[in-house]
Specification:
The radius of gyration is 21 Å and the shape is globular. 27% of the residues lie in helices and 38% in strands. It is an alpha+beta fold and 240 residues long. A hairpin with a 5-residue loop joins strand 2 (69-80) and strand 3 (86-95). The protein has 4 helices and 12 strands. It has a single domain (24-237), classed as outer membrane lipoprotein receptor (LolB), chain A. The two termini are 35 Å apart.
Length: 240
């Protein structure tokens, strides 16, 4: 993610003409723009990867660090349920040793830990709102004219979504235009208040069947000195 988380369905929604057939200028006006084509390709890539990932299970490792010190490491087995939602089974949860000290110190630390836990639950919920990008939210941003296409180099392009889910947020999606594959997602947003800024960096990789997945997602909440890293690995077909 910058400081401002598939592959095939081609959306066939090209603007239909509801008026009398006109000349070349009218037909050109009806043709989808490069941005519209790229948005359609992005939605296709997400839909196809989601369908393929439903055949897999994998291990999700979540690491929470405060001021650079690891406080919690959790491993969960993940797979898609019949309802299409990701199911998680806890495998291990390693927490940092409880601090020593008097009753007052322990109470203060317990309160801070409780606040951090509540914040992290909100942050985790926020991550899943952006990753993977929801086609419905993409359509909403497009209708509100909050999408811009930034050409890149080497067959790359970037779709930039402003006010995507919250006022003032920014989501930039890097795409390999040749393979129609997501390369990365970078988000500038906030958990509770705009001044409580967080950045989200999402990497993408490809499984043997071409399904796109997230090897690592990193959320950095600078104001809270909290970093959350989510690693996904060990993908294998379900029941194998």
């Amino acid at each position: 993610m910058s400081n401002m988380p598939g592959r095939v369905f081609v959306a066939g929604a090209i603007f239909a003409c509801t008026c009398v057939v006109g000349g070349p200028s009218l037909r050109a006006a009806q043709a989808p723009s490069a941005m519209e084509q790229r948005v359609a390709a992005l939605k296709q890539s997400i839909a196809e990867s989601h369908a393929r990932l439903r055949r897999y299970e994998w291990i999700e490792t979540t690491i929470i660090s405060v001021k650079g010190e690891e406080k919690d490491r959790k491993e969960q087995r993940c797979y898609y349920g019949v309802d299409g939602k990701v199911q998680k089974v806890l495998l291990s949860d390693e927490k940092a040793a409880a601090p020593s000290g008097g009753r007052l110190k322990k109470k203060i630390i317990a309160n801070k830990t409780s606040e951090m836990k509540a914040y992290m639950e909100s942050a985790a919920s926020l991550i899943h709102r952006y990753v993977p990008p929801d086609p419905t939210d993409i359509d909403s941003a497009k209708k509100r004219e909050k999408v811009a296409l930034r050409p890149g180099q080497g067959g790359r392009a970037q779709l930039e979504f402003t006010d995507y889910l919250q006022p003032g947020d920014l989501m930039a999606v890097d795409v390999d235009t040749t393979a129609n594959a997501l390369v990365g997602v970078h988000v500038n947003t906030y958990v509770e208040k705009p001044e409580d800024a967080v950045t989200l960096t999402v990497g993408f990789g490809a499984l043997p069947d071409g399904a796109s997945y997230n090897p690592q997602i990193t959320l950095d909440a600078a104001s809270k000195h909290i970093t959350v890293t989510i690693q996904n690995s060990g993908h294998r077909p379900v029941n194998q």
